[in-house]
Amino acid sequence: MPVRQRGMRRIDTSQILFLSGSSGTVGILKSGQPRMVFIGTPDEDEVVMFLEKEDLLVISAFGEGPKIEKGIKCMAYLLREMESPIVVLPDNHPTSQRLKMVVAVGSPIRLDCNIVPGTHPEQDILCACESLSGVKLSSTKDGVLIEGNVDNLKLETI
User: Fold this and answer.
1) How many CB atoms lie within 10 A of CB 13?
2) Is 154 helix (H, G, I), strand (E, B) or coil?
3) Cα-only R_g, the chain
4) How many CA atoms lie within 13 A of 90 on its CB side?
5) Choosing a second label site near 32 at 20 to 30 A (CA), which of 78, 94, 143, 151?
6) pTM of the model
7) pLDDT tens digits for range 43-90
8) Given the DSSP bridges, would you call strands 136-139 and 35-40 parallel, antiparallel or unpaired?
9) What does residue 135 show for φ and ψ, rounded to 5 degrees?
10) CA distances, 45 to each of 39, 87, 88 (Å)
């Protein structure tokens, strides 16, 4: 079920929507309830994102297949159930090249392949593979609005 230019997909709080690109996978789920997400920044500040139940948790992983999808589900659990914070690395940090997954929360979120993974405290942009770059994700009451070209979508229960 590809999306060409613009399409809405229904997801509820028990589901995760996977977008698969040529060399990466993005998992999208709903916050499910009002919550706070803490973000540690390189300048030793802490930003708090206040999410509503319709807001998105978006996880971008650099790879494909069942192992990557399992990792995305684990990260979703850490964010929603364990209330783990998000950590932003400083520019030119060597660990950014080792990251396997990065996260953004809120709505809208734009996927972009031209940023360094893990170094953006702004939650409206997320590093993704080139074939998903430019896709925009926005929360709706019943799901997610996807703007851009996505060939492979898969909906699963978390």
Assistant:
1) 14
2) strand
3) 14
4) 5
5) 151
6) 0.93
7) 888 999 999 999 999 999 999 999 999 999 999 999 999 999 999 988
8) unpaired
9) -70, 135
10) 8, 11, 10
Q: Are 34 and 55 in contact (CB under 8 A)?
A: no
Tokens 């940090």, located at residue: 93
DSSP line for 51-118: E-TT-EEEEEESS-SHHHHHHHHHHHHHHHTS-PPEE-PPTT-GGGGT-SEEEEEES-EEEESSS-TT
Residue 74 tokens, joined: 């684990």
Which residues, at least 6 apart from 126, have a Cβ–Cβ distance to it below 8 Å?
A: 26, 58, 60, 102, 103, 104, 109, 110, 111, 112, 120
